[in-house]
Hints:
5% helix; YmcC-like fold; 16 strands; 16-stranded antiparallel sheet; 2 helices; single chain
Amino acid sequence: MVLAWAALSGFEGASLRAQSVVVRQMEGEVRAFLVLRTLDGEIIADGDSTQVTHGREVTNRVVFHFKDGSLQDETVVFAQSGHFRLLGDHLVQKGPAFKHPMDVSINGSTGVVTVGYKDDSGKDKTETARLALPPDLVNGMVPILLKNLASGVQSATASMVVATPKPLLIKPLITAEGADSFSTGGASHEATRYVIKVDIGGVRGVLAELLGKQPPDTRVWMLGGSCPTFLRAEGPSSAGGPTWRTELVSAVWPKGVASARER
């Protein structure tokens, strides 16, 4: 989902080794509807999430259509045979909602990352790099992988490719920050709130903090238990972009639709 909407399971205790993610919750066919809001609650985009399976291969696509005509469209393909493994990710962001529109493709098998973007003069540019992608790569898989955290794990790390526009490998750090209550109808529930901090690392990380360009934190709310579920997230969708809130929504029926009793 959006956030890039990063987590790594397979950890025991506070281990932070880069390793592939153990599959604890098999992914299946899913259809969900989302909205993207400002932090003031204004809806700025409608989203549609579709997930299909082909054997042990899963394709998850999330599309957001903005009121201003902008588009965010991300498709991630991953394998789930004992461990999760990212096979490919394609993210398109275009329109006035994005300061820097981009088209980013990641080939999980070859490590080739291609970034299409426009420079400050409006000219089309392309950056291509071959990266040594680690087994804990989580692009496009944040909610899915958070569902697979081992019981009792409070912190983890993972890897993610970002476009600056040059492709760069970063290390999101995930921590269970606390719990928040919510309700469905008349029932009360409790969600775990995770905070995701981006560790750019090395000299680049120090410069980012000095220049005030350290990416803001992202927060993701998950429902735990035997069937963990994504609930909402807050964070930027692009470099230098504002913080937006992604939430699940349910169907709203027009008042004129007849109930079963009236038919």
